[in-house]
Structure formats: structure tokens, C-alpha cells
Specification:
The chain is of the alpha/beta class. It is built from 15 helices and 14 strands. It is globular, with a radius of gyration of 23 Å. This is NADH dehydrogenase FAD-containing subunit.
Length: about 500
């Protein structure tokens, strides 16, 4: 049959939601297209829920049947039934009745897709990601005033306004002398935070629309999307998306690839990479990028998550609670000792513990690391997923929750993260360069019988207060929070005993 490119243009349609790099998705999509005669088959982007990928959704007149990870033979049978005029529901994982005109994936009542909300993630898996016809652009008619008015905060490690009101950054950039520029920082060498990749793969038009809206708001004539040079497939998709929007947006960004290094994802280090610097390291601040950024120009740097939230706030301003301390939602990657990872979206009134319902763990829950590779360790997820609640609990806000089972050793887990920080810091400042090494050494000393808790905490305090880079400032967080939660486990190691039974040698 003829290749269909739009998912929203049909009342009856079969969607195959998958990652472009998925061989199983290729087989399922091929089987569906081969079997289909009159029913349109459209390949959509990922939903963020790995366990049900590829996901086949069969829709007709406001009813959708969901089939997670079906075999090609099963897909052919499903298509045959659809060709007969009925939506097959007998063995479906879920069946949902919804508005036939919905542009957002309808939520089942049960299963990982039912966890949280799908506001910003709504288009992911439901629309054709590279088809402008499936998207209603707002930036051609409106700037980001609505997002500024609700007090939206920046999201993610790569955002220069992380957990701060984006409106303040925009005001600075627009009133500083020079020609403003907007940067979408999507370069994160860590494979933990999947929210940005899910949006860029599943709803790139939303991110592009948000970038254009911010550019119009600050009167910037150009913009850049900055990605890792290792993500060649994503680069190809983004080039296609950028080409597809054509003149639909007032500002269309150029795509630039940077080093596949953890340090290169820090906002000001991203500017160094974009300028072609031989040494990638964060800049001293002040001045902030909003005052002096890319090639000295006033620069707004946000993550794809932030730009997608901006777009959502403009398109549906009533959906964002302007009275909330952290308006909007938080997109969270759920990974660790799980059968399959998930990307979910939680509102500010939800409990972070809801993320456990989106995955199946390998064993019994012991602890979580919240906030990325240098996040905080906790036994409890009974807190709001807001920036304020997470910071109050000593946790990170980068949009990652790693769930660990009882087979994990707290000392080994944070020791590896300290060693990671000692290797991945930029080396520019003494607290980051030497402090991370000292921290890793103090943790190794535990295996030799020396646990100097006070020394670790004092070193951590100095690093947090005086490091120039995020790596140096955040490296102590996994260690100090793990000591708070599991100090007896640390002391047991000084006696040569690992309560988890996993440590056999010094890290």
C-alpha cells in the first residue's frame, strides 16, 4: 500500500509506535504495511515505555486497541480484522474510548502507559513525528509570553536556567546589548535521562515550535540545536524535521553536533563546543550566558524538555497551574534494576513513588538514586516530583529515577559515581579537579578499614560551595545522601563485610 505519513488525518488508522533504530519495530511495521489494503498504517515515534515497544494501536472512530510488542504474525491477523471493519479487542492489552479528534495518546486505565499524565508527552507515539500536518504550530502567531507569565522553570542539567524561572533569563537576553541567539542543548553523554531523546524522537515539532516561540519572544533571529556527535540516527531525524517545517516557523534552528562527553552537556561547556574550542570546559560565571554567551551574544540555553513545556504552555495555557511553585509537569526517566526502562510524566501534585508503577523491578526495592548519575540516594520516593521538594530532600532534579534492588551495595554504587566524577570533571577548578579525586580516595579507604565520615562531609561542603562546574558541585551528593541512609552499611565495610554480598575488591 502507499506509505502514509500522517496519523491524525484518518478516523481509522493503525499506528506502529517504535524507535527508528528498532529492528523488531521494523519487522512489525513491515508486517502491518504488507497486510494492510485499505487501512492506513503510520509509523509513529516512541511513547517512552520500552516494555510495550513496538506498540501497535488500532483506531477507528474514537476507539483504540493497544497491543504491546506483538509478533509480525499477530499483527497480520489484527490488520485482517481491521480490514473487515472492526477494531480487534479480544486479546488487547487495553482498549480506550476517546475523542476521535484527540492529538494526544489516550491513556489506558492500567499498565505502564497509565502512569502519570501525557501532557507534554502526549504526541509521542500518537502523531507522525516528522509530519507537520500532524501538528498545530503556535510560534507563528504567538511568542512565549504565556510560558513567562506562569513562571515556568528550566528543566534538566543542560539548561542554563535549571530550576529557575525562564522568564528572568529571557528578560536578561532581550535587554542586553547585542543580537540574542537561542540554543537547544540536547547533548547528554549519559544514557540515563531519556526524556529529551523521547521528545526529539516522538515530538520534534513541539520542540522546534517551542524554540521558535522563545526566539520570537527575545527577538532572536537564529537558533541552534546542539546534539551529541554519536547520535547519528537522531541527527538524521532532526534534519528531516527541520527540513519539513520549512517556512512554517518564524525561526528554524540549525543542527550542530558536539563531543560525546559528559562535560560537554553543561550549558556553558556547550557554548565552548559550539565555538569550536579545543578544550571543553565550563565558563566562569558571571556573566551568565544570557548576558554573554555564544560568540559573546546574549544567549538563551534550554533543554528540549523546557522548550516542549514552553510550547505546551502557549498552546494550552489553562493546562498549566500558574499558582504552583513548579508550574507544569516533570518528565522522568525510570531505570536501574528494571526489566525495561520507562519515561513518564508527573504533575506537581503527584508522588514520585508513582514511577515504580511504570516498570517491573528485577528484585525487591532497596533504594533509588534521583537526579541522574550525580543524583541523591534515598530509601523513599514519597515526595512531590517538583524542583523544590527534590532539592529539600537533597536529591537531584535532572529527571531520572534509578531503582535499585537489594542486591545492590550502597558503598559500591556511590563509589563508582565518585570515580566517574573524578574522571569526567573538566579539571578547570581545584574543587572539581582535586576534590573529586579526594572523594573517590576516601571511599576507597573504607575498604581498608577507614571511614572518615566527618572528613567526607567537610570535603563535600567545600566542593558544593566553591566548584565552578556542576560535576564538582554535585559529585558529593550521592555519597552524603547514601551515608545518611545507609551509614551502618558503610561501617560494615570497614570490618571487611559487605551486607549486600557484592563487594569483592576495592573500587
Amino acid at each position: 500500500m502507499t506509505q502514509e505519513t500522517t496519523a491524525l488525518g484518518h478516523s481509522t488508522v493503525v499506528r506502529v509506535s517504535t524507535d527508528d533504530r528498532s529492528q523488531s519495530g521494523d519487522r512489525v511495521h513491515s508486517a502491518a504495511r504488507t497486510a494492510a489494503d485499505s487501512v492506513p498504517v503510520v509509523r509513529t515515534g516512541p511513547t517512552g515505555i520500552t516494555a510495550v515497544t513496538p506498540l501497535v494501536m488500532l483506531t477507528s472512530s474514537g476507539r483504540t486497541a493497544f497491543y504491546g510488542a506483538p509478533s509480525p504474525a499477530t499483527v497480520r491477523d489484527l490488520i485482517d480484522e481491521m480490514e473487515g471493519g472492526t477494531v480487534p479487542t479480544a486479546d488487547a492489552d487495553a482498549v480506550v474510548d476517546h475523542n476521535p479528534e484527540t492529538a494526544s495518546l489516550p491513556l489506558p486505565e492500567h499498565g505502564p502507559l497509565s502512569v502519570g499524565r501525557r501532557d507534554v508527552l502526549g504526541p509521542c507515539g500518537w502523531v507522525a513525528p516528522l509530519e507537520p500536518a500532524d501538528w498545530s504550530f503556535v510560534s507563528s502567531e504567538q511568542t512565549a509570553d504565556a510560558a513567562a507569565a506562569v513562571g515556568l522553570l528550566g528543566r534538566g542539567r543542560g539548561d542554563a536556567a535549571a530550576d529557575e524561572p525562564v522568564a528572568e533569563t529571557w528578560e536578561t537576553a532581550s535587554t542586553t546589548d547585542g543580537d540574542p541567539v537561542v540554543v537547544c542543548n540536547a547533548n547528554d553523554a549519559s544514557d540515563l535521562p531519556t526524556g529529551d531523546d523521547t521528545l526529539l524522537s516522538g515530538a520534534p515539532m513541539a520542540v522546534l515550535d517551542g524554540i521558535a516561540a522563545v526566539a520570537e519572544h527575545v527577538d532572536a533571529g537564529d537558533a541552534v540545536i546542539y546534539v551529541s556527535e554519536s547520535q547519528t540516527d537522531l541527527q538524521a531525524d532532526l534534519r528531516e524535521a527541520i527540513d519539513a517545517v520549512g517556512d512554517s516557523l518564524p525561526v528554524v534552528p540549525q543542527l550542530v553536533a558536539g563531543p560525546n562527553e559528559f562535560r560537554a552537556g553543561e550549558p556553558t561547556a556547550a557554548l565552548e563546543a559550539l565555538e569550536g574550542a579545543d578544550r571543553i570546559e565550563p565558563r566562569l560565571q558571571p556573566p551568565s550566558p544570557a548576558k554573554r554567551g555564544l560568540y559573546g551574544r546574549p544567549t538563551v540555553i534550554h533543554t528540549p524538555r523546557t522548550f516542549a513545556h514552553v510550547q505546551r504552555a502557549i498552546a494550552e495555557p489553562d493546562s498549566v497551574d500558574a499558582d504552583a511553585a513548579d508550574p507544569g509537569t516533570r518528565i522522568i526517566a525510570v531505570t536501574g534494576d528494571v526489566v525495561a526502562s520507562s519515561t513518564v510524566e508527573l504533575g506537581s501534585s503527584a508522588s514520585l513513588s508513582a514511577v515504580r508503577e511504570a516498570v517491573e523491578m528485577d528484585g525487591s526495592f532497596k533504594m533509588a538514586c534521583v537526579g541522574g548519575v550525580l543524583g541523591g540516594v534515598t530509601r523513599s520516593l514519597d515526595m512531590a516530583p517538583t524542583a523544590q521538594s527534590l532539592r529539600a530532600a537533597g536529591l537531584g532534579t535532572d529527571g531520572v529515577v534509578e531503582l535499585f534492588d537489594t542486591g545492590r551495595c550502597a558503598v559500591e554504587t556511590v563509589g563508582k559515581r565518585a570515580r566517574f566524577a573524578s574522571m569526567e570533571n573538566s579539571g578547570r577548578c581545584v574543587p572539581g579537579r582535586e576534590g573529586t579525586k579526594q572523594l573517590a580516595e576516601l571511599l576507597r579507604d573504607i575498604y581498608d578499614g577507614s571511614f572518615e565520615s566527618d572528613k567526607i562531609r567537610e570535603l563535600s561542603r567545600v566542593m558544593r560551595q566553591s566548584s565552578n562546574c556542576q560535576t564538582g558541585a554535585h559529585a558529593p551528593r550521592p555519597v552524603t545522601t547514601a551515608i545518611d541512609e545507609f551509614e551502618p552499611e558503610f561501617r560494615a565495610h570497614t570490618n571487611g563485610r559487605c551486607p549486600a554480598g557484592t563487594c569483592t575488591e576495592k573500587l
